Amino acid sequence: NEACRRWMRDAGVSGVLPPPQDKVVPYSSNSSLSRPSVTAQDLGEAGAPDAAPACERSDSLPTLYVQLHGDMARRLEQHEKPLQVQNDFLFKLGFKDPWRVQEEGMNTEMGSLIRFYAGKPHSIESSERVQLSGTYNVRKGKMQLPVNRWRRRRVILCGTCLIVSSVKDSQAGKMHVLPLIGGKVEEVRKHSHCLAFSSSGPQSQTYYVSFENFTEHLRWQRQASKMVSQRISSVDLSNCSLEQLPPNLFYSQDLTHLNLKHNFLDASRSLVELQRFSKLRSLNLSNNHLGHFPLSICSIATLTEVNLSCNCLSSVPSAVGDMRNLQTFLLDGNRLSDLPDELGDLPQLSYLGLTFNEFRQVPTVLEQLGAVERLCMAGNELGTLTLQAFRLLRIKHIDLRYTHFMVPDEPDFLRHVTHLDLRDNQLSELDASLFPKLEVLHCERNHLGSLKLRGTFLKGLYASSNEICQLEICPMPSNLTYMDVSRNRLESLPEWLCDSKKLEVLDVNHNQLSQLPERLLCSGSLRKLLAGYNQLQKLPEKLEGSQMEVLDIQHNQLSELPASLFLKADSLRCLNASANQLESIPPSSLSEESRSSLQELYLTNNRLTDKCVPMLTGHGHLRVLHLAYNQLQSFPASKMAKLEELEEVDLSGNRLKAIPTTILNCKRMHTVIAHSNCIEVFPEVMQLSDMKCVDLSCNELSEVTLPENLPPKLQELDLTGNPRLALDHKTLDNIRCFRIDQSPSSFSANEASAAPAVWSHGYTEASGVKNKLCVAALSVNNFGENREALYGVFDGDRNVEVPYLLQCTMGDVLAEELHKSKSEEDYMTSTFLVMQRKLGTAGQKLGGSAVLCHIRHDPTDPGGCFSLTTANVGKCQAILCRDGKPLPLSVLHNVGVAEEYQRVRQHKAIVTEDNKVNGVTDSTRIMGYSFLYPSVIPQPHVQTVVLTPQDEFFILGSRGLWDSVSPAEAVEAVRNVPDALAAAKKLCTLAQGYGCGESLSAVVVQLSVSEDCCCCCCELGAPPPPSPGLFPPPINVVIRDALPPPSSCSEISSEVSTSEMSSEVGSTASDEPPQSALLPEAHAGVSFPAEQRAVGGGGGAGSCALHPVCLAGSFQRQLSSATFSSALSDNGLDSEDEEPIAGVFSNGTRVEVEADVHCLRAREHPVSSQPPVPETPDRTESEEAADEHEGGGMAEVPRKAEPAGGAESGSTRTLGKRRGNGSVAPQERSHNLIEIATDAPTRKPGGYFTAPAQPDPEDQFIIPPELEEEVKEIMKQHQQEQQQQQKPHPTDQLPIDSFVTLM
């Protein structure tokens, strides 16, 4: 470390953050890295040393290396300075404020994204792939021969060979090389930890190597097994941070394929010895940042395939003409603008990749390449395609995506072209008839209004996402097999489609078709017809000879299906007729015997009645049945019994009162979804051994009988929305996703009702076809300190861990960022960027989409309204329903956006044919995927809207939801659904009914914003606006004769507010207001008039929901300053079995009793206009009891006191955990998967400590009913003792920070 500091001092430290003199260079947290790692602040602005290795430097000072996203580490160049490198990294990531960049740079977690090393770090994983070496006991030949003995030898496994040498002369002495390709590696049973390595061929040799332990034995066996299993002599050294080739690699003289991509090899020195591989045929050097073309490879005459993509090459030397056998030459993602004429000397070159370079015209050397069949020039800057002189070229495949070219109007243009790719070119017109031999045309995502082609050789047409209203193909394409013209403006289809003999797939989704050709369904070749999202009112009746297997006609205007559909189309396996106006379905047969092969039937969102059920019985092979949101009132048991092969059924949104018991005949049944019905009896589906998912939410269940042993594959059981249901089963905790409503607390009859909520939510999640739940939802109705709420949806695509990490952590991060910035865009952006760091800390390489919605009210603006701030990355989106119309709150970021495409191109990334950045993701802004930086970043789109009374609700959804349901349809579908959870359920059910097989998540937040929510009513005397449970129904525990008041008052009112659990599923119980909002004037020493203190939670005249006053009947829980414990403390009691007493709870170590002394003028009667009657200290207990009976001052003790609501203080605001009904409730401690930090109590100016405002229910000390009176008596005695020790205050009010605790 001292040598490193001396080197930095000699190099010149010029950074703004010089390293401390006494700071020790920290070691990497990664166990696989053995070198000391340092941050940019440790290194200051010192430039990197010379590029020579550290061991070659005369002063033996270490070389600096930088490692991005925990992957490869590269050597810093001499002109690079660590602090500047780190700052540039953070600015490109999305941070804008220099001070915030400096703060992030000092964070200890930054090493997961960028880290600096003094000396090259050593990675065990990559080093094992390069070579294995060690000194072991070795024996040559057969084990039976006594001549051969065990000897100590140096053994190396590198490339494709096993190298054995003397220990003393391991480099200069004699070396035995054993080629392993095609050989064997076997375990020797007679000797522990011994392997036998054998070569192939008639003169094979065998070496026995005895290892010291099983770990070494297993490592060598695994690596050697990969070598001997190869059919070709191939070595893969990609992603190994190589700066030079390993010397032992050159003993593999028979090497034919070498993969060196994603390294840091130097073109002039590291690759000079590649010519020693005399048999090398394939060489991959992509993504090595070579800077200039490696001349050494030009002398390897055997090369047939060379990949030099993404190496910042600006020119190709003339020596490239020496590679006479070259067939594939990939130069994509470089800076080339021209090619040498010597390239024309390559007679066998057939594939030339020039995509995403800087060509402004087609290189003239292509005229000499007569053998080239495939030319890729996508992503160049071609203005006009001028190939008049290239008519004699035999180029068949041309890739011209993202080139913005114009096709010249001349006949017989490129007559040899068979495959033409013109996607993403903003073309407004195209006459592809200029290509007479065209077989496959890709022209998706353009602006074509008409399309003209020659059909003589046409086999595939891909023209989706255009504006085509006229399609002309002449002559009739007799060889056409695939045709995709979806998302256009076609009003009719050509008749020649009926006569096409080879057409198998026809996709005409999202057009304006009102009818189909009369003979289209009679086609003997058509297997798949996708005609959804059109205006079809009737299908053709002619079905003779139909070979249709998949028919998708959803989202049309069909009122009936052809009567002979199932009779004649007996090959039909899947039918999707959802979102139509069907009232019945045709019969499957005219007799008892049926030839139906139908396996999947989707009829969601129609008008089907009970009459359609008998028509289903003929489909004996039916596996999937979706009948959600129809008008079914019953499903006869006899009909269900005949569907024995049924595996998945969805009957949601109907009027069913029961599921037929004959469902037990469906032995393969694994999914039963029947939410939003009137089911009263739980079906006996738990007796089916294959059952995985049961959803009976939003029904009228009152009792559920479960077997002792639940199905072993059961993963999801949703019983929310059944308010009368009481369920207790010991094995339910083993279910991956179990949801049930919490039991509502009982309230007394004389309690004031809670004010209506400004917002309430419901959410749902659904697994995909592979039973993987790759989505997660976040919902916190009370978030933060100033009447806030937070909702989110996260989609990990095919990853399960990423959305769960985002769900458990993102709320905590947002809570911290709110303290650092008040700007919506700043704190939302920082939340996403910090979350990127935390994903790296968790070791996540993959990523996912995310959308967050934050509702808040600015406490500094008394006349302000509620605002909704939305931020998103990836394909998770949110929409707001305003006046019944969808208002987008999010934006999709992909290469189709001009700004995003330019940014991706600026960083030399490649967009593959499937429109993905480097072939990984189609989103340019998304969480995770740090290895794609800086092309893919987590910087979100942020949008803020002010909520108005016209805003009804907003929806957050995952990618699968919005791919299946349009924003307009989503708004229309749930606008009239009163319950938020039922609305979210409906959205996911509709998406599944429309054919979505991915994981789904939807959050629906209903709004009730009135005009007076946007203004302060303290001065206006108006009633308070609706609030999210700001004043919930209180439960008052009045304690008599506690402290003598300064006047004649002789009681202190203590209240424990309990959130009311709504019977409407989807609305989450609201919590109490933040502490900072309850006493805005009390902390300033101002006493409240009696008229402003109303009993109950509803508020009254003179109170304001935005600025509530301290109420006599309202008390905010605060823990004592004496103790503080974590949420994980165990009090040894079961909160399910014992009853708590209001006002008494435990922090895990002692019992604490709360008493409210903040407002001493406690009242039992409602506020009246008359002056209060003074009380005397000598009132009798009977008089007090009479007053209590009249005013209702004493409420019933609840069965279970829930934690007081409200948000925690700044350092203790956390995300929350799942409630029993599936919602996410805030909690006092962060159960963060990435880091768990202990929150310390905060010292308040008033003189007491405050713990998190929401103790976990598990952290409460439950008082048995028989001890309630005893505890109350203890409280009275304790307060009487204080009465004797203290004198009455002369003023009318005690200090507001007084707090009474019994220990």
TrEMBL record:
Query: What cofactor does this chain's UniProt record say it requires?
Result: Mn(2+)
Concerning CDD domains, the annotation shows: PP2Cc (cd00143)
- Entry's Gene Ontology molecular function annotations: metal ion binding; protein serine/threonine phosphatase activity
Q: What is this protein called?
A: protein-serine/threonine phosphatase
Q: Superkingdom of the source?
A: Eukaryota
> Species name for this entry?
Scleropages formosus (Asian bonytongue)
Alphabetically sorted, this entry's keywords are: Cytoplasm, Hydrolase, Leucine-rich repeat, Manganese, Membrane, Metal-binding, Nucleus, Phosphoprotein, Protein phosphatase, Repeat
- The signal peptide stretch is none
* A UniProt-annotated Pfam family: LRR_6
Q: Which residues form the PH domain?
A: 129-229
Q: Name a GO CC annotation attached to this entry.
A: nucleus
Which stretches of sequence are listed as region Disordered? Answer: 9-55, 1046-1077, 1162-1260, 1272-1303
For this protein, the record's SUPFAM superfamilies field holds: L domain-like, PH domain-like, PP2C-like, RNI-like
Q: Where is the composition biased (Low complexity)?
A: 28-37, 1048-1067
Question: By its UniProt entry, which Gene3D superfamilies does this protein fall under?
Answer: PPM-type phosphatase domain (3.60.40.10), Ribonuclease Inhibitor (3.80.10.10)
